[in-house]
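Page header: ASSEMBLY MODEL / two components / 663 residues total.
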Amino acid sequence: MRFELTPRTNSPTVMRIFASVAAFITAFLIAGFVIWLMGRSPIAAFDVYVLQPLSDPWSLQELLVKATPMALIAIGLSYCFRANLWNIGAEGQYVIGAVLGGWLALRTHGTDAGAWLLPLMVLLGIIGGALWGLIPAFLKTRFGVNEILTSLMLVYVAQLILDYLVRGPWRDPKGFNFPQSVTFDPSATLHPILEGGRVHYGAVFAGIAVLVTVIVLGRTLFGYRLKLTGDAPRAARFAGFNSKATTLAVFAISGGLAGLAGISEVSGQIGQLQPSISPGYGFTAITVAFLGRLNPIGILVASLVVALTFIGGESAQIMLKLPLDLTQAFQGILLLCVLAADAMVSYRIRFVTRGGGR
Amino acid sequence: MTTFEAILLTIVTASTPLLIAALGELVTERSGVLNLGVEGMMVMGAACSFAAAVTFDSTLIGVVAGMLAGALMAALFALLVLGFAANQTGSGLALTILGLGLSGLIGAPFVGARRDPVAPIDIPGLSDIPVIGRLFFEQDLFVYASIVLTILVGLYLMRTRSGLTLRSIGENHTSANALGLPVWRVRFWAILFGGACAGLAGAYLALVYTRFWSPGMTAGRGWIALALVVFAAWRPGWVLVGAYIFGAATVLQLHAQAAQFGVPSQVLSAVPYLATILALLLLSIRHGRAIGAPGSLGVPFVPDR
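Prediction written out in full:
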């Protein structure tokens, strides 16, 4: 006996949502099995990973804080992935956004800058990320260089640039030789939305990005162009859509949003530049984008779900002595399950017995 | 041994894992499947080989464990892209994320452990030739194996019937299927071969190159191996050349860091990554689109009925 895949002509939304949920449950079962193999109780782990963060107000705020950068980056990536372009260097664009925006914060440090500072920092963050994202896009459109490899290589380069800056010229002279910049002035800090809360205005940016994307994808020619470029590149060319312009545009958008995430995180959450400013948000956002089925609302939900695994992972490390790598392994399993579920939605799987085909 | 000789020797050691991993990926890609999970399979190979080698105090068992780990990861990938016709790019990325996480779990108890160096094989007489003697005739077994593997992969692809089948499936899976060629079976084995090679490359890193385990120790080498395949235009001989160029770039930047030219170390650390981009760029400028790419590369195979 073997099985055959037949493309489905239509796949209802309910089924797509169900597939994501099913993928998530499967991933949990597999992760539980891995934890059991490690000689720990999967039930206790589930409690620490999922139930406790969801029942604690502090963790709920933390959930939003962690979901913010991932939602921003994943929304950007969804533009690329929809057009069948593979920007996997969002982590680098995030870093460069933080570097360029952070540069202004350090430049104006101690000068009592006005209210113009923050908007300008955010703008520089977006520009920095977009420019870094445009490098692989330009190399692709101008010379035909594979964007997957170049965008990834630039992640390492971006991290090394940040590393150089915070250990060298941007190091806090009074920082006891720690590789970190001075702490940003209050005028260069994204404030919490609620007084005394943890959730900063980056969450608002993420909300805006979601809304704008809903409109762009559903209501504009650009949204249609993306879909067509991704699904039927030949048809898109016949329709007169310039694929090079699309490539540059989606890389600028996704780079810009990753840069926005970077500067928001540095200014709203970390408060200074240091060698490591991300636990891999740029890569995890790929999982988030797929888990959210490249749909803006879906991505918003997915970013919260994946943020939960980060927070759960941190408390599991403290409470159950489960290594943090488990979180990353889980995210890998989750992405695999989502892709498999995707196939279930796109294809009808039929089991064929030998001799009796139809 | 002079410094110059020492540098040349380390270049060989740095190049070998790139060469092995890239050869495996080359075969996978020639069958029409793009597996972006090399980094994940490689790091799993490194973790599992080191864990097994320390546990059983045997390099051989370590190497076998590394190859099995790589092949097992590849089998998971094969299940997705062949069984479910899932998106290959996404599945490869997932494999890398999973590998980086899982290897951390497996390697955690072995952080801090060390392995003794693997004894080089001295070919009597020949290894006494100045400079090139030690370079070519006093290396560890893996180095010789990687060269032999290059030749074998080249012969297999270009001189055997089975290699021709594999290439034609990679070039056009629809036609190959219509001719009755076993698309799925060939691709399955090609993916598994790629995984075993990536695992072996990881084992080499952990057991010979560094001789310890640290999380994420592959440091992008899997991705560089992927770039090498493109750089080599999917030809094994050029993979060998490319791997040695990149190995040299890596080692020379390390020596340059030690020599302290006044250039920030981070600039030099960026050299292998920038060199990869530059190599891909030069190749594209010379040949236009990526030449030699198999026609069906990365396209999910769903047979017409």
